[in-house]
Amino acid sequence: MAHQTAIVTGSGRGIGKETAILLSKMGLNVVICSRTQNEIDSTVDQIKEIIIDTNHSDGAVAEGRILGIKCDVSKPSEVNYLVKSTVGIFKNIDILINNAGIVYIKKLIDTSEEEWDKTIDINLKGAFLSSKAVLPFMMKKMSGVIINVSSGAGKTGFPDISAYCASKFGMIGLTESLAWEVGNYNVKVMAICPGEVDTKMQEDFDREYYGRYKHKMLRPKQVAQRIIEMIFNDNKYNSGQSVEIG
After folding, report:
1. What is the C-alpha to C-alpha distance for residues 182 and 35, in angstroms, rounded to an integer?
2. Mean pLDDT of 64-72
């Protein structure tokens, strides 16, 4: 694993951040991607400290294994720059975690076209653009794993988040179709569908509910651990599978 490289979108906080941390602890090169620079910087610094502490190495070693790039995954030029930079530094891409996502808490009738488009663009189009950009490298070397972070809201519709649900349902369809397309190249594509997770997004959705039930929610690290299992346990999970955790 020491020479493998993973891109984790939306890894400035929450599930993405915890996944990036676990991958770095396993010895992989990790690329942090977010739209928010201060979140990128914070996560990169934290992972560098973990690498140094875990491997008793110096800062130069940590510097060489972690890369932070500001990227809006809904913009093709920024995604292409992300992938080009990753390959330029680490030479290959073995794992892609499509985790970046947003949510607007609004009834459909109150949702603007701009809000709808932004949700679909980041949550679903972002997974399309990122996958399309990394696949040529995975297909060339005949190996790779793509994990799409969907949601329990990708299996069941909920009120007041219709755009979010539509995007997450779409990710499952994308996962199943793409798995068929790249199966002959030994590239696995899977989705994970977490239930309620103790994240800022969940808190913003309903602060009163969050405060009352936070203790019952999944922790981001639990979801990250399942993602790691999906990537590296070849015998337990199949390409095209959507794995529920809740």
Report:
1. 29
2. 94
